[in-house]
Specification:
- The structure is a homodimer of 392-residue chains.
- Helices cover 25% and strands 19% of the residues of chain A.
- Chain A contains 10 helices and 9 strands.
- In chain A, strands 5, 6, 7, 8 and 9 form a 5-stranded antiparallel sheet that branches.
- In chain A, strand 7 and strand 8 form a beta hairpin.
- In chain A, helix 2 packs antiparallel against helix 4.
- At the A-B interface, strand 1, helix 4, strand 4 and strand 7 of A face strand 1, helix 4, strand 4 and strand 7 of B.
- Chains A, B: GO terms for molecular function: heme binding; metal ion binding; peroxidase activity.
């Protein structure tokens, strides 16, 4: 493949379709950083999902220690919920020795999830929500254990890296008596403080997340939040996270010219518009052909393969970039912490992942190196705790 | 040591001196993130030194490849200066395949420095500025090669992590034909967009940088910028950087009560005020004693040991926090990228470092694990390049 193979797929067309796309000015009006802004911790749903993307996201996974039973897991979740609630309202955690680092919340959110091992180790196999299961293996995967799996997820997001770092450490201390650390994945993005903020870009330069359901709509609720159909009552109001660590092969991606990059994606890089449209949110016309009868959006482009085939196979993308610097050979160690949230993983996520794993031009320049799934329980009230419906 | 030893040093006193310090409210009015704000690349001095601290700082070190001679080093610096100037004015680098990531500068700065090996390998030993040399070994050091040394420094700072990441990658590509990567150190802080912004905190919770010379003053220029006294004309307008990676032993630090922490530092944690004062910028009274005749600020506290003994041993602190997550044992892998800038390293930095290495209560909870020094040449004009006075 590389450039030659790609061009074989659709260049005659795409090349004509692109025109002046590369010179369109990008106008990103970013919102100011608001250090005092709180995101409520308590509520029907956990924060950090419908919350507009913050500047920093840290995902940490932990494995339950041997001997942690239901009673201990309940204590653990009470402690985590209490500390998370404090931190999110800009108060120090219990036993917080650096209380000043909690005083500027900057849209801090703490989100908790349970991996498959949580249910197994606690003997809760019969309470696993419908549609929640590990992903199958894909041929494109080159998964590393150090970025995969985990019994308990803590997702901490916020606009101030110092505040996020402090919250992660306090929560890591809280869970340590019950769990061992499995991995930490740290990401960043350009913050969105409202649902109308511009869609952020990833490190390949692409606008990423255009087709997301819009926060606050019924559509969002249908796509993201589980209802009684989950098969287990406790999960109503929860959601399921698929977190994939996707390395970007920037060396070879950079060998592609901008037209080649746009054909691989199916969108213009400068504006995010589909190759058949003018604006980011224009609906792609996957059937459009040029004067030679070739598709304008290549059939194996990312958006053609990812496009949902019905209302059921959609999800919320809420991804962060990662950048761990320069590897020994001088190449970049960076990519995407791809985070997909949906009410039912098996029904909504798997069909799309299956199509992309089978055929997606972007697979040439991306390699999944980590993978984990978590069931995120619904939110809780001030007198409750996360997971109370499951553990009680 | 630990808590007991510390208390032996000065608790009778300090305990009384602290009072309500822990409950003082912290009022941090942060400035908004300004995506369009440019910091000029060209000028008498390089950016990223007098520039108010940005939210993100990445330091990368590179070693010259064998065979790189003066002519090649000159080409290298022309290319780096050209790309840096473009990125800082929100234009893509030459050969930039993700040009959109350069469009929101967010106070991006690129700062270049030369390590001792740069001068040696290029046969420029007789042009080393007076006062520039590697640090001696200190007993407190546990230096690791992977965080130490380097022939060429690229320091990239800005308020948008995505923009910083992109700039680092573009510049790393630019230098790769001439150098091999040595290390990358990534840090963050709460941004200061003006010299009057509140002094940021480090991960121990301390306000860090109170005694800095104030940007824009003659004092700043005297402390930071080299003049003709540097012994080599080309270095006038430059400065010298000491970068120390200092691991914080948060587990044991957290075992200290807040009073113990304040005695170790010599300042109140909540306000940054010296134990003899009320406000952050109050002058510490190192001779003050309590009614028992014991010093209010312990003699081995950090500020007592670091306090300058004359005008000559001062420098600019412009440090970033680092946080690499949780180590295998569950403890935190975090600390400070301590960055000190001064006109003359030997004269200004060494006396302070010598006193601190000899005796500083904070040494109990901090371990230097990396160390590097760089001579940062003066700025250049639009037709020139960084290091032109040295290389021409």
């Amino acid at each position: 493949m590389r450039r030659r193979g790609l061009l074989g797929v659709g260049l005659g067309v795409g090349g004509l379709a692109l025109g002046a796309g590369g010179t369109v000015a990008v106008d990103r009006a970013l919102s100011p950083h608001e250090p005092d802004r709180l995101i409520p911790f308590h509520g029907a749903h956990q924060g950090g999902v419908e919350t507009p993307l913050q500047a920093h996201g840290v995902f940490t996974a932990h494995d339950l220690r041997d001997g942690v039973d239901l009673a201990a897991a309940t204590r653990l979740m009470r402690l985590v919920s209490d500390d998370a609630a404090r931190l999110c309202r800009a108060e120090p955690a219990v036993n917080d020795q650096e209380p000043e680092l909690a005083r500027t919340p900057s849209r801090l959110t703490v989100t908790v999830g349970f991996g498959p091992g949580w249910f197994e180790r606690l003997g809760l196999q019969d309470r696993v929500p419908t549609g929640f299961a590990d992903l199958p293996s894909y041929e494109i995967d080159q998964l590393q254990r150090r970025w995969s799996g985990g019994d308990l997820l803590l997702q901490v997001c916020g606009d101030d890296a110092l505040v996020v770092s402090h919250a992660v450490r306090q929560l890591s201390k809280t869970v340590r008596a019950f769990t061992t650390p499995r991995w930490v994945q740290r990401g960043f993005s350009t913050p969105m403080s409202t649902p109308d903020s511009p869609t952020p870009r990833n490190l390949m330069g692409q606008i990423d997340g255009t087709v997301n359901p819009r926060s606050g709509t019924d559509d969002f609720a249908t796509v993201v939040w589980a209802d009684r159909d989950a098969g287990v009552d406790w999960f109503a109001g929860g959601t399921m996270l698929v977190l994939r660590r996707i390395a970007m092969l920037m060396e070879t991606w950079d060998e592609l010219d901008p037209h080649g990059q746009e054909l691989a994606v199916g969108r213009r890089i400068a504006t995010g518009a589909p190759l058949t449209g003018q604006q980011e949110h224009d609906q792609p016309d996957l059937n459009a052909t040029d004067h030679s009868g070739l598709p304008v959006i290549p059939k194996f482009s990312h958006i053609a393969r990812a496009a949902h085939t019905d209302r059921g196979d959609r999800f919320l993308r809420r991804s962060y970039n990662y950048d761990e610097g320069v590897a020994e050979d001088g190449t970049a160690d960076l990519g995407l912490l791809f985070a997909a949230y949906q009410a039912n993983l098996t029904r909504q996520y798997l069909p799309v992942q299956g199509r992309l794993a089978q055929q997606d031009l972007l697979n040439e320049w991306t390699v999944p190196i980590g993978s984990a799934v978590f069931a995120l329980p619904p939110g809780c009230g001030p007198d409750g705790f996360l997971g109370e419906g499951l553990l009680r």
